[in-house]
Write a structure and sequence with these properties.
Largest sheet: 2 strands, antiparallel
Number of strands: 2
Oligomer: single chain
Helix content: 25-40%
Order of helices and strands: HHHEEH
Distance between the termini: 41 Å
Strand content: 5-15%
Number of helices: 4
Structural class: mainly alpha
């Protein structure tokens, strides 16, 4: 079971008009893309599920609010205006959101480290500060 999960109930407080079928598909897409940039969100040992969920939910709501891309015409007396409500969708997540998800993976779980097993006396001409 993935550590980060979202459901339609997580979106409806912010977007009560969202279609359940659309919401389910959007959630699946958002989680799949998030798992590519931050694979740790799928691990049961992931400890920052709430933060990752908030980032993913924000991207989903932005996607939902982007509009249908329909062209809307408005008329008032002899004047008319046509508005294109489409927005260019370049990606699911903004670069800042990708960075945030990746940082959550860096703080979760084990990290790489090294231990110097060579005694300091081996390097008599090197300042101790440089030896760590």
């Amino acid at each position: 079971m993935a550590a980060v999960t979202l459901s339609i109930d997580d979106l409806t407080p912010f977007a009560p008009d969202i279609d359940p079928g659309k919401a389910t598909a959007m959630i699946e897409d958002a989680l799949a893309v998030a798992a590519i940039v931050a694979p740790c969100i799928l691990e049961d040992t992931f400890t920052a599920a709430g933060a990752a969920k908030a980032i993913i939910r924000g991207a989903l709501l932005r996607w939902h609010d982007a509009g249908t891309g329909a062209v809307v015409s408005q008329a008032a007396g002899p004047f008319t205006q046509t508005i294109d409500t489409s927005t260019t969708r370049r990606g699911m997540y903004w670069p800042s959101e990708i960075t945030q998800l990746q940082k959550l993976c860096q703080t979760s779980g084990a990290r790489a480290f090294s231990i110097d097993t060579v005694p300091a006396e081996t390097y008599p001409n090197v300042h101790p500060f440089l030896l760590g």
